[in-house]
Amino acid sequence: MSFLRHLAACNRHDLDRYRRFYVAGKPVGWVRDDFFRVLSDFGAPFTVKGDGIGLDEGLPTFHHRTLAMNAAVMKLVERKAMPKLRREQYPVLTRWGEEPLLAVDRAAVPFFGLRSFGLHVNGFVRKEDGLHLWVGRRAMDRGVAPGKLDNLVAGGQPHGLTLAENLVKEAQEEAGLAAELALKAKPVGVISYLMENERGLKPDTLFCYDLELDPAHVPRNTDGEVECFELWPLDKVAESVASTDDWKFNVNLVVIDFLVRHGWLTPEHPEYVQVCSGLRKLD
């Protein structure tokens, strides 16, 4: 039984295969060598910059950069260099809290190795025998992790919404939670990782929340992402994460963090120090 293997899986990458991607002269992402060649041949609005590549620095504003980037992404999709668009815009930031340099379709984010942000909500219940966690099973038609176990609520952070607005939206769609209940979720920190997949690099940051629910409240999915919810005792959750690969890859990290913060995973565990330090791989 190991928790560390999930941290290792979410941080498996080889930066020797990548070159920096720049926007407004600032390094904001990474492109793999094969995609670098695609962009080099593509031409404007991309320009080679040293050993990397970036958007033309003559694009002066968020609006100009966004138009140019999204037009290029559409052409890349047409040329089969990228999968179909997700029709959801993600902000491109140098760091959280700063003004975005541009916005780009979610499908393009890993190809350019851009840091993306999301939120995950641990829905839990207190019973006489201890804490229980609501566990969702993802629908089999999902493009990512079909059939895997998931948090009560989770979703990417799009451009144009605050975290609170996105929390309310995702909580309604994924668990049927009213806004006043969703906003009772308490922010409890961030988790980050740097993961390579078949499309590129994923430097992701997840904002984690805990939401204590009444034992009588049963979540209800409304957008088709989750097939069902089950309420599991924390011992069962921990055993499942430690001994199986049944959970969506990054949800493992969110649940492990929950186990640490609520005292299930203690310093007596041989992986405790490495787990605690490995959950946050920030730039």
From TrEMBL:
One of its GO terms (molecular function) is 8-oxo-dGDP phosphatase activity. CDD domains: NUDIX_Tnr3_like (cd03676). InterPro entries: DUF4743, NUDIX_hydrolase-like_dom_sf, NUDIX_hydrolase_dom. Residues 116-257 form the Nudix hydrolase domain. It holds the Pfam family DUF4743. This is DUF4743 domain-containing protein. It comes from Aerophototrophica crusticola. The lineage of its organism: Bacteria, Pseudomonadati, Pseudomonadota, Alphaproteobacteria, Rhodospirillales.
